[in-house]
Amino acid sequence: MASPAGDAVASRSAGGAVVPRHVAIIMDGNGRWAKKRLLPRIAGHRQGAEALRKTLRAAGEMGIEALTLYAFSSENWRRPVTEIADLMGLLRHYLRREIDEIHANGIRLHVIGDYRRLDSDIVALIDEARARTAGNSGMHFVIALNYGAQDEIVRAARALAEEARSGTLDPASIDASAIEARLDTHCLPPLDLLIRTSGEARLSNFLLWQAAYAELLFVDTLWPDFDGAALAKAVAAFGARERRYGGL
Ligand code: IPE
Ligand code: IPE
Ligand code: MG
Question: Would the pLDDT of 164 be above 90?
Answer without folding.
Answer: yes
